[in-house]
């Protein structure tokens, strides 16, 4: 099937032939749907922490930060913003020249409210010799959009979201990168007043991120009285996956070479694995708020981190006892109840096939994550479910709709009862009790990828998505779900989302 040229290309990508053949097999076999036990709901997998108890967890996190611990804020930031401007790209291609759709009218009716307005105004003057308002008066709406999106203007249609101006401030408008730096100082600052932030970026945009941080970092440090250590990584080529045509044969470019595509955000488990830290906060690049809302947002980040620290500490205590051996029946029963009630790990229906101490060691000695869950109000996002695992146990998982069998009445009933979703709000503990980093790819469920349909040069193709970072990529972690208010979730999926009160 593969030519010598193909084999050289596979080798160049740091992939093995076995891996590529395994991927091709996946296209033919597909991925199994997950067996859903039920939706995770309040008091059945999702913790609702009373207001009176919140401060104890927040204090727990403050106490943790006073010791010498490595904390990193990890921000996936490589995706281009093109989807954010889908409606405006459609307007450029439309056979009409005046804003017609609701989205177009909203954009132009509020254009001066965007943080990028002054930059857009300057771009319009450079390109056309007129301001935005003059072009609008003349009916030259498409020129305004072109100045915003195209490479000879602001190039917003092709830049990543992290580099776009989101919020207005008297001292200078701010990008999501600036907001993430600022936000990190609220809950991820160590005892030496250092804030470690890691952005995953695409290779072509990395210089822009570095330039932006280089230009702004010292001003933020002075304002916030802290030091920023900002690092970057790129998706590894070895996480790319082969594409196939509609007959499941390798898709070939016009020059005959194989087509490999990025394996989705699940590839970032490799990047996460390379981060040297004990605790890692994960949050999407576009979920940021202006300074006036940051204290509220930070409160719940500290809450999640406090829950993580407390539960992990208990697990470490139990592991220490198990390692010493000679645990009493009562102690083993307490540990078992902890895994069942606090970590929501349901034992196999037919009983354990290994000794209780071995089972407890296996379940307690692995990475931990606490995930913020918000009430489902129709926003897209993965949902919390209790799912059966390969070893017969059941545990908490975040599922995407592609992992759910829509023809299974039980799964559909669980989907109907699902009350919350995960807005990518995670705090992770990735070292064992002796301070050794877990090898995170060992905890991925490889059966949870999915196949999506794409096109290239007008030809249809199938692409293989790796198990999502916070879905199958963290399948074999200890997982805790905690309810947080919807007000902590303020994503920017379309440009008009920036007009929401939270972003103004």
- How many domains comprise the coordinates? 2
CATH level-3 fold name of the largest domain: Spore Coat Polysaccharide Biosynthesis Protein SpsA, Chain A
Instruction: Tell me the major beta sheet.
Output: 10 strands, mixed
Shape: globular
Residues in β-strands, percent = 15-25%
**Amino-to-carboxy terminus distance:** 56 Å
How many DSSP-defined strands? Answer: 17
Question: For the CA atoms, what is the radius of gyration?
Answer: 24 Å
Structural class by secondary-structure content: alpha/beta
Taking pLDDT < 50 over at least 5 consecutive residues as the criterion, the unreliable ranges are: none
Quaternary assembly: single chain
Name given to the CATH architecture of the largest domain: Alpha-Beta Complex
- Can you identify the CATH class of the largest domain? Alpha Beta
Q: What's the pLDDT, averaged over the residues?
A: 94
Tell me the helix content.
25-40%
Total DSSP helices: 15
Provide an overview of this structure:
With 504 residues, this protein is α/β, with parallel strands linked by helices. It folds into two domains: 398 residues, Spore Coat Polysaccharide Biosynthesis Protein SpsA, Chain A (Alpha-Beta Complex); 77 residues, no CATH class. Helices cover 36% and strands 17% of the residues. Strands 2, 3, 4, 5, 6, 9, 10, 13, 14 and 17 form a ten-stranded mixed sheet that branches. The chain has a three-stranded antiparallel sheet with strand order 1-11-12. A hairpin with a 2-residue loop joins strand 15 and strand 16. Helix 4 packs across helix 8. The radius of gyration is 24 Å and the shape is globular. The relative contact order is 0.16. The model has no long low-confidence stretch (mean pLDDT 94).
């Amino acid at each position: 099937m593969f030519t010598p040229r193909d084999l050289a290309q596979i080798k160049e990508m740091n992939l093995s032939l076995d891996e590529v053949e395994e991927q091709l097999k996946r296209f033919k076999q597909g991925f199994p749907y997950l067996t859903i036990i039920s939706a995770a709901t309040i008091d059945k997998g999702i913790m609702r922490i009373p207001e009176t108890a919140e401060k104890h967890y927040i204090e727990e996190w403050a106490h943790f930060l006073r010791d010498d611990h490595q904390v990193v804020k990890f921000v996936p930031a490589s995706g281009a913003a093109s989807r954010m401007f889908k409606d405006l790209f459609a307007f450029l291609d439309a056979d009409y020249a005046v804003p017609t759709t609701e989205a177009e009218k909203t954009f132009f009716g509020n254009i001066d409210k965007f943080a990028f307005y002054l930059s857009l105004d300057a771009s319009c003057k450079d390109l056309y010799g007129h301001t935005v308002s003059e072009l609008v008066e003349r009916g030259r709406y498409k020129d305004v959009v072109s100045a915003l999106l195209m490479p000879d203007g602001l190039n917003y249609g092709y830049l990543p979201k992290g580099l776009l101006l989101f919020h207005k401030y008297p001292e200078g408008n701010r990008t999501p990168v600036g907001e993430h730096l600022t936000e990190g100082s609220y809950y991820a600052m160590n005892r030496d007043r250092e804030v470690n932030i890691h952005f995953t970026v695409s290779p072509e945009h990395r210089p822009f991120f570095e330039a932006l941080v280089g230009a702004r970092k010292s001003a933020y440090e002075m304002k916030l009285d802290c030091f920023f250590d900002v690092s970057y990584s790129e998706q590894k080529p070895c996480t790319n996956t082969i594409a196939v045509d509609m007959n499941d044969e390798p898709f070939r470019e016009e020059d005959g070479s194989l087509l490999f595509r990025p394996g989705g955000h699940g590839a970032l488990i490799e990047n996460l694995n390379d981060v040297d830290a004990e605790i890692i906060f994960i949050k999407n690049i576009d979920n940021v708020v202006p300074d006036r809302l940051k204290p509220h947002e930070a409160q719940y980040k500290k809450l999640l981190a406090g829950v993580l620290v407390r539960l992990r500490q208990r697990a470490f205590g139990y592991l220490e006892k198990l390692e010493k051996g000679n645990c009493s029946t009562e102690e083993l029963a307490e540990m078992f109840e902890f895994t069942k009630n606090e970590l929501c790990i349901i034992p196999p229906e037919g009983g354990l096939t290994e000794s209780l101490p071995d089972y407890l060691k296996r379940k307690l000695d692995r990475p931990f994550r606490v995930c913020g869950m918000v009430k489902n109000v129709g926003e897209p996002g993965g949902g919390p479910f209790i799912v059966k695992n390969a070893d017969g146990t059941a545990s908490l998982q975040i599922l995407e709709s592609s992992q759910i069998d829509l023809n299974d009445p039980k799964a559909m009933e669980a989907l109907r009862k699902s009350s919350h979703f995960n807005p990518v709000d995670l705090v992770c503990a990735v070292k064992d009790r002796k301070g050794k980093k877990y090898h995170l790819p060992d905890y991925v469920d490889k059966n949870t990828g999915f196949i999506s349909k794409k096109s290239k040069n007008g030809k249809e193709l199938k692409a293989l998505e790796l198990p999502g970072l916070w879905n199958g990529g963290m399948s074999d972690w200890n997982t805790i779900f905690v309810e947080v208010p919807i007000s902590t979730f303020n994503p920017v999926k379309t440009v008009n989302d920036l007009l929401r009160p939270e972003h103004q």
